[in-house]
Amino acid sequence: MSRRTRTLLPTTAKLLAPRVVQNHHQEIVKGQERQAKYHNRGAKDLPRLKKEDKVRIQDHGQVLKKSPSVKVTVKAEVGIRSYEVETQDGRVLRRNRSHLRKTTCTEDEVDETPQTEIHTDEDRESNQTAERQSKRAVDCQREQKVEIRTLSGQLVNRPAYLKDYVSFVF
What we know:
- Residues 103-139 are annotated as: Disordered.
- The longest helix has 25 residues, at 121-145.
- The protein has a domain at 53-102.
- It has helices spanning 13-16, 24-40, 107-110, 121-145; strands at 54-57, 70-77, 82-87, 92-96, 101-102, 148-149, 155-156.
- The strands form two sheets. A five-stranded antiparallel beta sheet has the order 4-3-2-1-5, with no helix packed on it. A two-stranded antiparallel ribbon has the order 6-7.
- It is 29% helix and 17% strand.
- The protein is of the alpha+beta class and 170 residues long.
- The protein has four helices and seven strands, in the order ααβββββααββ.
């Protein structure tokens, strides 16, 4: 840290003598505290989740593909901001609180899609379109129930001209 650059310019012997840098660690800690102060100025603690709460996560492997979020159930709080969640297929994952979004929908709303038997190709196509429409209807119902709030707690209202479009909250 106290090395001089190599130069052809004449320098005094005093500048060439090495010196020990004082209070270097304190300066680093002071800078970290300053950075934390400005970061925490806009940060807000998320509310804690309870056991058996229904939440949604985005699977790590699917983040870049913009896939829909996966519905999971909170099993336990492991750490300060860490939770164990169980997916519908039985996997147990550990996720940070910032990656979990609480939902208001229940199991019954998600499983409302009708199960029909398929006999012919024409029936299959008509049934598939009917299932898609029913899934969209369930998504629209779920979308209407979700309240989006800002960090300060204000309710965000969607513009009226976007009412015909489907949007994903997560």
